[in-house]
Amino acid sequence: MKIIQLSPLEETVPPKKYGGTELVVFNLCEELVKMGHEVYLLAAGDSTTSAKLIPVFPKSIRKLKEAHDIKVREALKFIGIGKILDLLKGLRADVIHNHIGWRMLPFLSQIGAPNVTTLHGPLDIRYQQYVYGKFPDSPYVTISNSQRRPFDKLNFAATVYNGIDFDKFEYSGKPGGYFAFLGRMSPEKGPMQAIKIAKIAKAKLVMAAKVDAVDEAFFNKEVAPLIDGEQIKFLGEVGHAQKVKLLKGARALLAPIQWREPFGLFFVEAMACGTPVIAYDMGSAKEIVADGKTGFVVKTEPEFLNAVKRLDEIKRSDCRERVKNNFTSRIMAENYLKVYRKLIG
């Protein structure tokens, strides 16, 4: 099968550090190539892939100096879509897989090939609902069932859970004496709540997170003053090796999320290392974390603090097994192939 993958252009594929969607695209491409398919990846030119890379920009938007202006950054995304449409004219594919999201939707009718859009973000943002609502018959894939709830009026082809390269995540049955926080330093990820929980529990917390431009003020004003380098440590944005080291040594991943998490790749990455997850019951948490077996999914702060005390009830081997059976890149690729075949008919 000849498959074209359209990646966001903000980061490289795979991302050097933080970048959930780009990592999922990378894992999908690698698996599809291993399975013998002809795969083309339209992405930033500094990407690395076993697929046939077709560069849209020479490098990722994040690395462009002009992209420091938020409005220019947004304009570059649409300029990139224009380039993608030009590049697609010379390619004939069995199916085109859009990971760019709503910005690509108005142009999919020009492609002239079966296509599907994976929704990597939440569906509770009003202006995005407006755009998706204009194209309700376009086929969509959600990355969790809970992701659909805020806007269930679309043509959902399937739910396909994100997958990781399982063998790249080392397992540890003996954690260290700290908790981990991983992700973005944004209010919806709950860094303030994680720090508060660690302080009440008198536990060490090691935080590894990207600080986006839109979150700099929040981080500098609210979070940074609470980082003392002793009980609360901040590593900044980390690469894969550092991430695995952090996760496999942690007693648990603290995920006091404040939004409808569409999937939560960091849940899966932690569990692959044998590390339980404690998360608030929002979005996909209960679909990913087996409550009481691979972590705890709670509703209140007292429940969260109680879960911290109950970690001895969790077998770290169960955490890893759950990922192996449900959230590998191979399983993800097989499920996407089912979607592609259905689209092609």
Topology:
Blueprint: E1 2-6, H1 20-34, E2 38-43, E3 52-55, H2 70-88, E4 95-98, E5 115-119, H3 126-134, E6 139-142, E7 155-159, E8 178-184, H4 191-201, E9 204-210, H5 216-223, E10 232-236, H6 240-248, E11 250-255, H7 265-272, E12 277-280, H8 285-288, E13 295-298, H9 301-309, H10 316-326, H11 329-344
Parallel strand pairs: 1-2, 1-4, 2-3, 4-5, 5-6, 6-7, 8-9, 8-11, 9-10, 11-12, 12-13
Helix pairs in contact: 1-11, 7-10
In short:
By secondary structure, this protein is of the alpha/beta class.
What would you say this structure looks like, in words?
- With 345 residues, the chain is an alpha/beta fold.
- The protein has two domains: 179 residues, Rossmann fold; 161 residues, Rossmann fold (3-Layer(aba) Sandwich), CATH 3.40.50.
- It is built from eleven helices and 13 strands.
- The strands form two sheets. The protein has a seven-stranded parallel β-sheet. Strands 10-9-8-11-12-13 form a six-stranded parallel β-sheet, sandwiched between helices.
- The two termini are 13 Å apart.
- The mean pLDDT is 95.
Total count of domains = 2
The order of strands across the largest sheet is 3-2-1-4-5-6-7
N-C termini distance: 13 Å
CATH superfamily of the largest domain: Glycogen Phosphorylase B
What name does the CATH topology of the largest domain carry? Rossmann fold
Instruction: Calculate the mean pLDDT score and round it.
Output: 95
Class by SSE composition:
alpha/beta
- How much of the residues is beta strand, in percent? 15-25%
Number of helices: 11
Radius of gyration: 20 Å
Outline type: globular
Corresponding CATH architecture of the largest domain:
3-Layer(aba) Sandwich
Name the CATH class of the largest domain: Alpha Beta
